[in-house]
Amino acid sequence: MIVEFANQLREKGVKVQEAIIESSKLRLRPILVTTLAAVAGALPLVFADGADAAVRNSIGFVIVGGLSIGTIFTIFVIPVIYQTFKKD
User: Fold this and answer.
1) Which domains, ranges and CATH numbers included, belong to the chain?
2) Does the keyword Cytoplasm apply (predicted)?
3) N or C, where is the chain less crowded by C-beta within 10 Å?
4) Phi, psi at residue 7, to the nearest 5°?
């Protein structure tokens, strides 16, 4: 979504860096809220106990870890890659 918003701004004549900053500002809150909601939904798997708890714990850790890494990648890495390949 950050790339899509940046492309829309670029079509309006905004420079690459300004487009990245503006699109990142617009998408930061929705990205964080979505990630936090999904992590909150997976926390019961992480803290599960009882029969087959090990399987549920593993699934929970994978979900939480994947969401965390994906969010960090989306917020920090994608804008840098976009700026690298999209020159003014």
Assistant:
1) 2-85 (1.20.1640.10)
2) no
3) C
4) -65, -40
